[in-house]
Amino acid sequence: EYKDRTWVINELPLEEYLYGLAETSNISHSDYQKALVTVARTYATYHYERATKYKNEYFHISSYSWDQVYNGEGHEERSPRIVEAVEDTRGITVTYDGATAITPYFSRSDGRTRDWSDVWGGTVAWCQAVEVPCDVGSTLWGHGVGLSASGALCMAKNGEAWDDILKHFYQGIELMKRWEE
Predict the structure, then answer these.
(1) Strand pairing report for 174-177 and 92-96
(2) How far is it, in rounded angstroms, from Cα 86 to Cα 35?
């Protein structure tokens, strides 16, 4: 049973959690970093608010790839630009119709993302298939729903702003500053 297991839990504020996010490198484009940490913040907030992932446990997000890769304080020290991206977007989450949006993301598309309904069934209005020109000719790596990391990185390198990148991958969303500290 879950109560018979030992857990090591690192309890910390969300923004500090994001400092240790290891989903990209310190040298990736700053607009890509901002888009990715905003999506990661939103993903964590969504699951915290709804207690959807680990409702029978004593934590909300794991540090592994089935949630978001978190490497802790050491990673934070090695990745000051990630910390800067977190600070530049502090408290901003993706919303749809005034509520926190679920924001799946994955490594690489094959030139287009997938509708939520095609992969997981049901409907999520902001997770519709979109073209990802930078990924044309590539092999799909991941579930294909939401933000393609390689496509978003390419868009940033081509001069797209982080908020425009998010609005490309998540249709009809708004970005809301929810907290300062």
Answers:
(1) antiparallel
(2) 10
> How many angstroms separate the CA atoms of 41 and 37, rounded?
6
DSSP state of 99: E
Residue linked to tokens 């977190």: 86
Q: Which two tokens stand for residue 82?
A: 């990630």
Q: Which residues have a Cβ under 8 Å from the Cβ of 164 and sit 6 or more positions away? A: 155
The C-alpha R_g of the chain, in whole angstroms, comes to: 16
Strands (E), 30-96: 92-96
Q: Which one has a higher pLDDT value, 74 or 180?
A: 180
Compute the C-alpha angle 135/37/17, nearest 5°: 140
Evaluated on CA atoms 44, 32, 170, 100, the torsion sign reads positive
Q: Please give the average per-residue pLDDT across 92-115, as a whole number.
A: 96
